[in-house]
Write a structure and sequence with these properties.
This protein has 14 helices and 5 strands. The chain is mainly alpha-helical and about 325 residues long.
Length: about 325
């Protein structure tokens, strides 16, 4: 067994990734893969909890996301990368955990009603949507993960997993599952091109592998401080979504130059954006080039994920065998 502690995280397959995904999760995964034994998975079954009526894009989105993972720097030599639905043990553990999870725990889940309100155009009054925290718990503890890297908004989900693991161990009087810790990660909320949070649903994203010309055009059209109506009007850089991106992509000297230039109207918004464009493209160009290379090697990409699935299956099968023994349902071994 690896001496490194094991962590697990996943993403729903929504297709190509944008800057918010890169800085909100993917950069952190890339950093963690050299420090922990990492399992990262495509949560395609989770996508069905909200998109069960229109699942047509899930498979295409899965491979789009995998390509972006590999292009950005996830390394299958350091981390196990796999697709959730290809490891059937997730479903078995989901069923077993569902037998012991009290219904009020799920009904009190803080995101349950919140997401129903946000996605009111969809019928989410389903068993799958109510029970997705149990599936999430199965995803985590089937690999006996010691930790789960999440932002503050995801802490309640990990706490639910912790409670389910404790309950299973208590009922069956065997420490089958480690109780995973929260690995709190500080992730910036990136503004989109219109100033709102970057989100595909808002149509305001900059994608990490889109053509450089598209990136230039989007940044040039980004809103800035609304007080700067004319070129010689001073502004407040903190009110500008462009400046929020400068903080991630530009050097300290450039950030200072842009901030001072905005406040004094020494530089215009176009000049400010040109500096940002240069720095964003310096980061994204290698990712886009790697993506283009991988698109020409589909068999290699699929083999990479196939190997990850195989590795994940071995660990998951061992856990399921122990869970069955703990419960006492293992008839073929009696």
């Amino acid at each position: 067994m690896s001496e490194r502690k094991r962590i697990l995280s996943g993403m729903r397959p929504t297709g190509r990734l944008h800057l918010g995904n890169l800085h909100g999760a993917l950069d952190n995964w890339i950093r963690l893969q050299s420090q922990y034994e990492c399992f990262f998975f495509v949560a395609d079954w989770h996508a069905l909890t909200t998109d069960y009526a229109s699942p047509g894009q899930i498979t295409e989105n899965t491979w789009d996301m995998v390509l972006d993972w590999l292009s950005a720097g996830l390394d299958p030599r350091q981390a196990t990368l796999f697709i959730q639905s290809e490891v059937k043990e997730h479903a078995e553990l989901y069923l077993l955990l569902g037998m012991i999870t009290p219904l009020p725990w799920l009904e009190r889940n803080p995101t349950y009603k919140e997401q129903q309100q946000q996605l009111d155009q969809k019928d989410l009054a389903t068993y799958g949507f109510l029970g997705y925290p149990v599936l999430q718990a199965a995803d985590i503890i089937i690999y006996r993960a010691h930790g789960v890297p999440v932002g503050k908004d995801q802490i309640p989900h990990v706490e639910m997993t912790r409670e389910i693991a404790r309950r299973f161990n208590f009922i069956y009087q065997r420490e089958v599952f480690p109780v995973p810790d929260v690995l709190l990660t500080e992730a910036p909320v990136l503004p989109g091109t219109d100033g709102r949070k970057m989100s595909k649903s808002y149509g305001n994203c900059i994608y990490i592998t889109e053509p450089g010309e598209n990136v230039r055009e989007k940044i040039l059209k980004m809103m800035t401080d609304p007080a700067r109506v004319r070129r010689n009007d001073p502004g407040n850089p903190e009110l500008s979504p462009v400046f929020a991106l400068h903080k991630l992509y530009s050097s300290p000297a450039e950030i200072e130059e842009v901030a001072e230039g905005c406040r004094t109207a020494r530089i215009g918004c176009i000049d400010c954006k040109k500096i940002l464009i240069k720095n964003v493209l310096a980061r994204l160009d290698p990712i886009r080039e790697k993506r283009m290379e991988l698109e020409g090697k589909p068999d290699q990409v699929r083999e990479t994920i196939r190997q990850g699935i195989s590795s994940a299956q071995k660990v998951a099968a061992e856990t399921i065998a122990e869970a069955r023994r703990a419960i006492g349902i293992d008839p073929m071994r009696t």
